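not sure who needs this but someone in the group chat was asking about Beta-ketoacyl synthase N-terminal-like domain-containing protein from Streptosporangium vulgare so here u go. i didnt clean anything up, its just raw.
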Amino acid sequence: MASRPVVITGLGVICAIGRDPTEFWLRLMSGQGGVTPVDDEAFAVFTARYAGQVPAGWIAEQLADADADLDRTAQLALIAARQAVGQAGLSADDVEADRFGLVLGKCQATPDAAGRYQPMHRTGDVVAGRLGMRGPRILVSTACAAGGNAVGLAKDKILTGEADVVLAGGVDPLLFGTYAGFAGLQALSTGPCAPYSRSDGLNLGEGAAFLLLEPLDRALARGATPLAEVAGYGLSADAYHATAPDPTGRGGASAVRRALADAGMSTDDVSYVSGHGTGTPANDAMEAKVMRAVFGDRAPRVPTSSIKSFVGHTLGAAGAVEAVASVLALQHGMAPPTIGFDTDSVTDLDFVPNVARRMPIETVVSNNYAFGGNNVALALTVPGGEREYEEFPDRPVVISGLGPVSGLGTGIAELAEAIAEGRQAVGRSPSLEGRTFAPRSLWRHMNHLSRMAIAASRLAWEDAGIKLPRAALDNVGLIFATAAGSVESTGGFDESVAVDPNKPAVLSFSNVVLNATGGAVCQTLGLRGPTTTICNGEASASIALDCAVEMIRAGKADVVLVVAADEATATAAAGTTITPYDRDRTGEAPGSAAVAILVESAEHCAERGGRAYARILGTGHAGTAEQDERESIRRSLAGLPAEGAGLVVGAGTGGRYDADEASVLLELVPDGLLTTSVGQTGDCQAASGAMNLAVAALAIRDGIAPALHGLERPYAGEVESYVRKPHLSEAVGQALVLTAAAGSVRGAVLLGAMA
């Protein structure tokens, strides 16, 4: 029996060919593209100056006065989000705020009104705040695959019961630095691009698109009109190269096959393919191989087109924009054309050249590929009627390997020793001198973040004692979690663009996308399973773990590697000490770390004779605002039986939210001793969340936990309510772990001892 049907009931889009779905579709059908010369004088330094731009007037006419101070990225996203909610006819009475989720795809860190980089999740926080959404909130950053990836993760949130309605989409503006990077790679066409024929380069674009997802039965009950069904989705990793796609098409083909398997369909069911179609020689040649590999002899009879020929490459928005086009194709029975197609090109495939085609369309596969080797495929179908379905499976999941890399040491043995001795390493960067965790030809060209993440991944794999044949690695998942990606690469690239935009540091550019480090891990370890990257600040690791559990429960993988890594943007003074939760020892200190956690089904771990640290009993996440932190902690814990936890590893950083957290936790978990890893490592952003998960698992198995040395005047409770000595006097049956991205997401994970 199939899983619960999830449908799309609302669409929103703003891009170079339309300020809403109606105008967007009319332009697609008329063959009227929106790629034009860039109207910003700053871009005159480039030889290739064509892009898909959104007129400023289109933005201004759809915004309220209260939105005028928002940055351009947030404005684009808010316009498309409101359109999708409006078309779905969704009101505040139709969904509880706590059950209304958001999954947003972005490729680039975007500037605020003052030109400073914002946290990646900031755009999603703005959209959620303006629309009153307090449910699960995820920022996915798998570069140019992010928009499609977001739709798949949104479906998961509905199937697991975490949300009743989820808004999924993508957004990215046209940025000078990104343009310089693609120009430096010589990937831009000097005129409007011609995917699948001339293939002489791509055009960049900008825009936003959203799709509103909800269960079919719920949509019909409230009188909504289903526009399409999200029948399935597939993710994969190329494990091949930082920027170039695997020329064999293996990764892209794997994503399509996984999407169809998820949907319970065969290749014969596919009517039309919405291709990635960037117009670069490498991409277009690879996609042709994907078509032939997936569809075999039928490939020439499966119409495939690229709407990037209309709008340019909208990066993180591309998958969502193309998903909107796919839904409209299903509705109208029309395949959008590939415009600019040179009909003299020799090809056996049907790329719907230049003119839209009326045809029966029951199922669309929408494909996207990205730097870092991320691939995603969506299987969208004409919605069916209500039918019986199976509940989301409940497979037990365990943590079986830990790989910490921080100033405290490298590997679980060194971390355990540092905790037992009470050592502090605030501000101390991990040292990997003299150690190589990848082939030297790769290792010497890697930035520090990738080296840390790869080292952590290898160590977790070794700690788990897992040995799999090469073929099995195709089904091992990888979820990378980071707040900011590589500071080293971003800084180096920005500096090079400032000196000469025509000579950017292209090696740094390939590592500016936040999923690049996850791609490097996949390439080094040979992992080609379902892969994604989560960028929700300090809450990223718990969200990544949540996604890993969902993959395993759904049967999409038996083993998933969760890797979190961040490096400090500033350096803490030598000898800096902080004591979280103490009134007199406040102050935040940055740190750098990477932590890998190997997660697998309990059955798989037992069959191979593995020794797990802990069971994952449950997770919870709640969207929040800075003025709502206490209530958000309560909401993140609402579905977890955490009151009996013997240990609580909090998100405390020594900052202004420690008092709120301590007060609520001591109230809700009165018998749990409170601690955090941050006092010993500094605030390592996403890696601190993963470190907290690691020390909780270590406490359950080995009975040690970070002691809060120097704690004398806690914000809440008595000192006896906190961990004061690393060797715990009682065995820990359950441990609660908190993560927090202030003003964005609060997360909670409950771990339990192995039976």
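also The CA atoms of residues 545 and 562 lie 6 Å apart. if thats useful
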